[in-house]
TrEMBL record:
It comes from the Bacteria. It comes from Saccharopolyspora elongata. It holds the Pfam family WHD_BLACT. The keyword Chaperone does not apply. This is MBL fold metallo-hydrolase. SMART domains: Lactamase_B. Residues 31-189 form the Metallo-beta-lactamase domain. The keyword Hydrolase applies. Keywords: Hydrolase. GO terms for molecular function: hydrolase activity.
Length: 265
């Protein structure tokens, strides 16, 4: 079974399976991936990102239980809107980097190792897409990294002002690019990928190329150029349905160039 597969638990590694929520959109690709993490010998499981407030999806995830713990990669609603209902279904505590998202448990810390479902998950703070974005590295015989929206299974990640921050995101990508080769990517949207180091390196190259294009647009149109005007030039090859998201990213790019002293204002 391959991605996408709605309504069916799909095994990806010996300890990680995914249920794809039926919330497709230009921003969520085919939908949100809810990950169920359990070593084959464990009696409980960990759920990463319950997903949207979709009763049928949440019930399917809860039926994989008992769920001992819920982990959140970041606060966006397509990953978290179903949390309250999921807690009612399972009674499981919820942990996130932001204490406001936690239910019955403490916020986790960067570098913390979480042991549940027979698996050890190391928290890696990867701010940029949002300030509270994290990844989870599974230290297992077949290691992998759950990337939330920091790395997607297809396309690239939106960095939206004001919560998103391009400088932080570039630093997070550099961190992910230092992971051992061959570490599998289990993303929040889209299909899994074979090598986190390779894709993070490719993301960095793509971001630098986009920044060069933004610099060129500013030179051509002047420092008062609007994000929309930049999008029309730099993202002309991108489907117009995602231009609003591209405009958010351009705002972050322009803010980054100002922070680096390359733009005034």
């Amino acid at each position: 079974m391959e991605h996408p597969a709605y309504g069916t638990l799909r095994q990806v590694t010996p300890y990680a399976s995914v249920l794809l929520a039926h919330n497709p959109s230009p921003m969520t690709l085919e939908g949100t991936n809810t990950w169920v993490v359990r070593d084959p010998g464990a009696g409980d499981c960990v759920v990463i990102d319950p997903g949207p407030d979709d009763a049928a999806h949440l019930r399917r995830v809860a039926d994989q239980g008992p769920v001992s713990l819920v982990l959140l990669t970041h606060h966006h609603g397509d990953h978290t809107d179903g949390v309250e209902q999921f807690v009612e279904l399972t009674g499981a505590p919820v942990r996130a980097l932001d204490p406001a998202l936690c239910r019955g448990a403490e916020a986790f810390r960067d570098g913390e190792v979480i042991k549940a479902g027979g698996v050890e998950l190391r928290v890696v703070a990867t701010a940029g897409h949002t300030a509270d974005s994290v990844c989870f590295i599974a230290d297992h015989d077949e290691p992998a990294v759950f990337t939330g929206d920091s790395i997607l299974g297809r396309g690239t990640t939106v960095v939206a002002q004001p919560d998103g921050h391009l400088g932080s995101y570039l630093a997070s990508l550099r961190l992910l690019a230092e992971l051992p080769p061959g570490l599998r990517v289990l993303p929040g949207h889209g299909p899994e990928l074979p090598d986190a180091q390779a894709i993070a390196t490719a993301y960095l190259k793509h971001r630098e190329q986009r920044l060069d294009q933004v610099r060129a647009a500013v030179r051509d149109q002047g420092p008062e150029v609007t994000p929309r005007q930049v999008v029309e030039v730099v993202y002309a090859d991108v489907d117009r349905s995602v231009w609003p998201a591209a405009e958010w990213t351009v705002q972050a790019q322009l803010a980054y160039l100002r922070e680096q002293g390359e733009l005034r204002g």
